[in-house]
Give the backbone structure.
Amino acid sequence: MSRSIDAWIAEAPEAQRSQLQRLRSLVIAAAPDAVESLKWGQPCFARKTLFCYLQRARTHVTLGFQKGALMSDPDKRLVGDGKLMRHVRFGRSETIDTKLCTALIEEALRVDRGPP
């Protein structure tokens, strides 16, 4: 675990800290070999390539995916209209949906591995 990411989470408003810690723990559980780093002022996680990131905003936290447009999203929770990046947002008082986030992280890892 990265101390700089610990500090980034600690700087978040109290209402968001537990959300960010939960999201980070879900990423690490799904990809214990992922490399964590702060890039563009936010935590990013990489294996073969960058596969996901965390963001915080005034009203929400975000779990984002570098290649989200290539991911399967049966529940249609991913948003974004860029070429590749997509994300899911959680409002300050919203509970992190562990099942949804784990499925999305695992899908991001599948896409990161590329074709079999």
About this structure: Residues 11 and 17 are 8 Å apart (CA to CA). The two ends are 30 Å apart (CA to CA). The beta strands are 35-39, 42-46, 50-56, 60-65, 86-91.
